[in-house]
What we know:
single chain; Immunoglobulin-like; globular; 15 helices
Amino acid sequence: MEVVEYNSEFLKIEFVTSKIVRFHFSKDRIWKKNYSFCVNLEKFEEVDYEHREDNRAHYFLTSDLNIVIYKNPNRIQIYDRKGNLINSDYRDLGYVKKGEGIYSYKEIGKEKAFLGFGERIGSLNKKGKRIINWNTDEPNHEFDRDPLYQSHPFFLAYSNLSYGLFYDSTAFSYFDMGFESKNYYYFFTEDDELDYYFIFGPSPKEVIENYTYLTGRCYMPPLWSLGLHQSRWSYDSEDKVYKIAELFRKKNIPCDALYLDIDYMEGYRVFTVNRKRFPNFEKMIEDLKKLGFKVVIIIDPGIKMDKKYKIYIEGLKEGFFCKKKTGEIFVGYVWPRKTVFPDFFKEKVRKWWGEKHKWFIDNGIYGFWNDMNEPSNFSKFGYYMMKLLFHVFHFKEPPDPFKAKNFEERVKQIKEKTLPQDVVHGEDEVLIHNKVHNAYGLMMTKSTFDGFRETKKEVRPFILSRAGFSGIQKYSAVWCGDNKSTWENLYSSIVTLQNLSISGVPFVGEDVGGFWRDCEKELFIRWIQLGVFYPFFRIHTAKNTRDQEPWSFGEEVEKIAKEYINLRYQLIPYIYSLFYEAKEKGIPLIRSFVLEFQDEEVLSHEDEFMFGPFILVAPVFERGKREREVYLPKGFWYDFYTGKRYRGGSIIKVFAPLNRIPLFLREGSIVPMWDVQNYVGEKKQENLYLKITPGEGRFLYYEDDGISWNYENGEFNLIEFYTLMKDGNQYLGIKSIKKGYVSPIKKIIVKTFRNDFILDPKDGEYLIS
Ligand code: MIG
């Protein structure tokens, strides 16, 4: 750690690793912001560096970087050790206090694209855009609508020296990425101090690896959560739930999870069950378990203000609810009408809340869905409006009458959709809402995760959160909230999920089929085909909309849907192994081309993505389309269905009938697959299929028991599969890297497009062509 003078204030420089540097400014050498909601500040290693100083500047040299801090005027520039400039403050404007907040300007140099920024609608590259960080319940996902439910003040600057910047601020903030001027970009925050990290690559994957080293990585999701999730607002009675479950099994359509949305509760009182609708709730969970289903229940943060309701009484007595500066409890309006909000910034509250899940966990619920945790607050008018529209007039989507005219109006509008600015949080109630707003959902989800781990030590939970901040991946999966059943929203999900993945969150998805409005046949088919390649694969739809189960659109649709859901289940071993890479290195499953290929061409094809290293997905996103153009990056590619070979580096036109989403396998692909089953665990998977294309490649296969935390004690296997070309022949190598778990695999079935080969799962190199 070093401190230098900066604009007659102070700059603290900390080295997290030789590639990650923290810059933290303060007025008076006190650094009030000595906490972080996502970075483990204790974890910083001892990093070797050299400090030199002359009249002009301070120089800090690590094994990878040369950080120059000019003295007069103050300006930060960062170079690699070969002397290439990576990032520079814009003139002397690297740290500017003005009005309500702080600005930090940087020069736009060689950066070809700015990617990441968490959950965003609009084009992949955010160069030239302005982007707000303020968790917002935004039900209208039209192009460029911003912000949404999550804030990740992080981006990846893509060039041949890629870097990232992470601004560890949970306050209201925004990025201007060359909107105002093409010469610079800036970050503005209403925080008290500027606290940010420079993260070097130089490859985009290394940036993500380093960023997630800082903010955390996911755990291995329970295997069942990689199957299909079926949801709607709401399956609101036992009968309905049983009926859905039975239909899935009768039709042999695989599915692992069924959802209970807000109507399972007693008058929207969280942690209760409506016994009129679910008289035998416990038995229902048991019965569903026998059929191979897990039940995921929604948990909203808002607590009904009701003097007879246990949770309200307890929280009130203990002082657990968010208060205004004046000391009185803040009362908002959400689904339970008058609503109070737990202060998740207090450790005691998190513990209390976590423990409240116990009854459900004891009764076999291993999945919790955290909604409305921005937190969303309707206002009194909004509440009655929502009631009227959804319960009386049966609307299928909320109207969007309040479109902001300009940036300032938008800021004002989003700040009104949540707790007031003067609510105070935390142990000593000194954290002002405006400064910590973006971490509310993160803290709720953390409380859920910790509570579960305390209560049920042997089982991994599945947690899903709508709101979040950087680091959310440590606790939960993320879905992007209330999209619509429109082609535009199918398209935007392709792009949104790429940026969210670049932001270090691997377990992501959108409502398949679309949430608001009635879905239509063709859209449903195309969305299911795409959803197979969402790491989190859930069908969900809003109140009052038509049914959205795989069989709801007639036989033709059902047949295609089933075929693709089957494919999803076959791909689970590939997906699970990719999650291992996400857990170890932070590398996401959905990969923009920039993560896998190095050339400029790849930037202009945001409507395609890689699913892991091998599968190129080119979704169809227009009605009536039966072909599409696909850009194949350099190298050789094979049509997933036919094995037809293509030379990459150009755009091709492919046939895309209704029952086919264009998919391509990269040369050197090794994709592990299973037999189809109705739910994870139905069959012991003794056959491991390897789908292989010509060329050379490698894949690290991971397996464990799929449900317990025993992998943390080494109970897992790693097998390296690789392909080699020798004298024009292809060989498959099998090399066990780690053995800690009894593998179910009895046979390895190699599937090239020409032949099948059956192998014993033993180390060696085998001729396969
Ligand atoms: O105000 O619980 O995004 O998935 O079905 C709407 C009802 C509240 C919003 C969620 C959506 C969920 C719905 N919720």
